[in-house]
Amino acid sequence: MLQSIGSELSLSNSLPQGLFSVSWDLDGTFADTSVDLARALNQTRAEKGMGELPIPDVARHVGKGAKWLVQNCLDPGLDPDEIEATVQRFLAYYLVGCSQMTKAYPGVIEYSRALRAAGIKQALATNKPRRFTERILSDLGWNSLFDSVHCGDDGRAKPDPEMLNHCIQSLGSRAEQHLHLGDTPTDAAAANAAGCLFLGVRWGMDGGEGLMAEGVEPLFASLAELAAHMETL
């Protein structure tokens, strides 16, 4: 259990045999970024004379890129030129405040540090562009938690396995020694294509609805549940 993870020994005894490395998705898995994303989106809507959307209505569209978010939270009928201009306005708003209200989910920082103490290498594997990812990691003091950081604009984004393949290689690991943690079918598909273990979380943006719809299991509602499951592998 997470509560028992207070030392290298106790965590080491609860990890799957042969586990060498772990990668975390960012939005909806490691951190709740929904407030900052919704604020930037609603600032963009305000420019067009549109009212605010509640945070959950924005959050459920997170994970498929800025264009998808803009199209689904503003107007799916925007012409291509207007879509691109609107996406750039949204990204400008988001860059200014992308770390203001973003926070790690309960227990995530502690578990990440316990993994490190147990000798587990860790990477961040996010489809978020690097300029936003680096701003968040720097502003919130999270850089030291990861041995490598891989972003959506570095190459082919998830669900393509390229990102996780690069994670695994950068950590000196192998697919069969690697675990990816994520909250969307995109994460599950990338892990499956890369040949590594995947565990899905339900504390993210859509409460695990996307993963459940795809029949992905097991899924975990809390870090404590996930840590307890790790003891059984």
Can you put this structure into words, describing what you see?
The chain is α/β, with parallel strands linked by helices and 233 residues long. It folds into two domains: 2-32 and 102-230, Rossmann fold (3-Layer(aba) Sandwich), CATH 3.40.50; 34-97, DNA polymerase, domain 1 (Orthogonal Bundle). The protein is 44% helix and 12% strand. The chain is built from eleven helices and eight strands. The protein has helices at residues 8-12, 34-47, 55-59, 66-73, 80-97, 108-117, 130-140, 162-170, 185-194, 209-213, 223-230, and strands spanning 21-24, 31-32, 103-104, 121-125, 148-150, 178-182, 197-201, 219-220. The strands form two sheets. It has a six-stranded parallel β-sheet with strand order 5-4-1-6-7-8, sandwiched between helices. It has a two-stranded antiparallel sheet with strand order 2-3. Helix 2 (34-47) crosses helix 5 (80-97). The longest helix has 18 residues, at 80-97. The radius of gyration is 18 Å and the shape is globular. The protein starts with 7 loop residues before the first helix and ends with a helix.
